[in-house]
Amino acid sequence: MKSPRVISDPDILGGTPVFIGTRVPVRMIFEHLEAGDSLEVFLEDFPSVSRVLAIQVLDAHTA
């Protein structure tokens, strides 16, 4: 996923795409949602990811 809100850097989690400014893999939001968790649960589990950033990534994924 190419996005200014996501970064893939070999020095951060071996290049796993993460939310920019965090070490939270982007796949975590999709795993939470697929498991039936709400966005609220994801944000509580990963407080370093802002609501705005999470929504932007979700919007980019569905575009």
CATH classification class: Mainly Alpha
The average pLDDT value, as a whole number, equals 92
Total number of strands: 2
Query: In which range does the helix fraction lie?
Result: 40-55%
**What structural class do helix, strand and pairing data support?**
mainly alpha
* CATH structural architecture: Orthogonal Bundle
Strand proportion = 5-15%
Shape: globular
Number of domains: 1
Number of helices: 3
Distance between the termini: 12 Å
Low-confidence stretches: none
**Which strands sit side by side, in order, in the main sheet?**
1-2
Outline the biggest β-sheet. 2 strands, antiparallel
At the fold tier of CATH, the topology name is Arc Repressor Mutant, subunit A
Topology order in helix (H) and strand (E) letters: EEHHH
- Round the Cα radius of gyration to an integer and report it: 11 Å
Secondary structure blueprint with pairings:
Blueprint lengths: L5 E2 L10 E2 L7 H8 L4 H7 L5 H12 L1
Antiparallel strand pairs: 1-2
What does this molecule look like?
14% of the residues are buried. The protein has 63 residues and is mainly alpha-helical. It has one domain (6-62): Arc Repressor Mutant, subunit A (Orthogonal Bundle), CATH 1.10.10. The longest helix has 12 residues, at 51-62. It contains three helices and two strands; from the N terminus they run ββααα. The mean pLDDT is 92.
Key traits:
63 residues, mainly alpha, Arc Repressor Mutant, subunit A, two-stranded antiparallel sheet, 2 strands, globular
Quick rundown:
With about 60 residues, the chain is mainly alpha-helical.
